[in-house]
């Protein structure tokens, strides 16, 4: 049968599966207050982090496939580490740095910086469950490296890993300026990978980063963005379902972040480098990984947010294919 002339052609990558069709979800719990949104974010990571670890590994961030060869051959685990390497390249964070890893997930990046670069890393996350998982994974890795059974934290909570050390804390990043006030200027680097898009007050984050960095310290950032100058239709089709399902306050543009950083007294030192086409494969892999009825069943038990989360994977693929949704890395210096 001929396609009716009025139908919208399917966007490349916008693939509905039989499984996802069974869980069609109406859009849009408006975030009534920013505290309500934070509570939902915390609950999401408390409930879903074991699943992230099983499905996605120790990094809860995109993979970076920079070349055709990498796109054809690199696993997602290799590509996820390559994103960290890219951030190190653009920022020049040095070996042995004292790093604050903001929104640290289950600690994959913190452990990498400690074990590979000898950094002293404090990871903070809003999810207490993530602190537990991150600490457990770190102790296991340290025990393996030291060929010992018991690994204990030191008096400040740090666990030694290679030449570096790591600790994890449950802390709302919006409080980090106050929390680390006594250590003002203590960090050589603030690292934030795919967490800032969750924060309601982006300007406050840049001010806090400035507060806790040493003079000459670096802010290293990877995040999700909307494209400049989007029309209402593109916004409604692509960006709104991402903000809704991924629990994000309104997404910013890349230049929006640059302006927040300038206003906070930070200078741009790397990027913004838009790497959307080199990271979008992440969601092709993710969409195929979640074609599992047990996972949708689990998401269903979390209520509407759980289902909207899985459904938004399609919107991520559509947004990348349409160019309305973007990914970039950048670095700043105090
Ligand atoms: C997509 S994960 C990224 C994890 C990690 N940076 C990585 O690259 O693997 C987002 C992280 O942001 C954290 N997060 C979100 N809102 C936060 C807040 N207000 N304060 C601290 N952490 C927050 C979540 O708990 C989660 O660890």
From TrEMBL:
It holds the Pfam family CMAS. Residues 212-221 are annotated as: SAM motif III. One of its GO terms (molecular function) is methyltransferase activity. Residues 99-108 are annotated as: SAM motif I. One of its GO terms (biological process) is methylation. InterPro entries: Erg6_SMT_methyltransf, PiNMT-like, SAM-dependent_MTases_sf. Belongs to the class I-like SAM-binding methyltransferase superfamily. gTMT family. This is Methyltransferase domain-containing protein.
């Amino acid at each position: 049968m001929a396609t009716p002339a009025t139908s919208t052609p399917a966007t490349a990558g916008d693939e509905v599966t039989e499984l996802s069709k069974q869980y069609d979800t109406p859009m849009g719990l408006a975030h009534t207050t920013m505290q309500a949104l934070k509570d939902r974010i915390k609950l999401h990571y408390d409930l879903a982090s074991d699943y992230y670890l099983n499905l996605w590994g120790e990094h809860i961030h995109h993979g970076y496939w920079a070349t055709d060869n990498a796109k054809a051959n690199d696993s997602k685990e290799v590509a996820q580490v390559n994103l960290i390497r890219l951030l190190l390249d653009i920022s020049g964070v040095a070996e042995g740095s004292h790093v604050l890893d903001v929104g640290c997930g289950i600690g994959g990046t913190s452990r990498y910086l400690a074990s590979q670069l000898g950094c002293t890393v404090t990871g903070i996350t809003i999810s207490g469950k993530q602190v537990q998982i991150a600490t457990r994974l770190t102790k296991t890795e340290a025990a393996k490296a030291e060929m010992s059974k018991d690994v204990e934290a030191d008096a400040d909570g740090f666990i030694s890993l290679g030449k570096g050390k790591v600790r994890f804390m449950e802390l709302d990043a919006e409080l980090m300026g106050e929390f680390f006030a006594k250590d003002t200027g203590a960090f050589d680097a603030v690292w934030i990978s795919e967490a800032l898009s969750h924060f309601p007050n982006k300007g406050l984050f840049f001010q806090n980063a400035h507060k806790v960095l040493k003079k000459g310290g670096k802010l290293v950032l990877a995040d999700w963005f909307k494209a400049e100058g989007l029309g209402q239709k593109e916004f409604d089709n692509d960006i709104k379902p991402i903000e809704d399902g991924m629990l994000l306050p309104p997404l910013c543009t890349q230049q929006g972040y640059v302006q927040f950083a300038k206003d906070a007294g930070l200078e741009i030192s790397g990027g913004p480098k838009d790497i959307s086409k080199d990271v979008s494969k992440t969601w092709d892999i993710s969409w195929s990984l979640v074609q599992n009825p047990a996972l949708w069943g689990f998401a269903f038990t979390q209520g509407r947010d759980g289902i909207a989360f899985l459904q938004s994977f399609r919107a991520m693929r559509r947004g990348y294919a349409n160019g309305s949704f973007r990914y970039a890395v950048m670095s700043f210096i105090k």
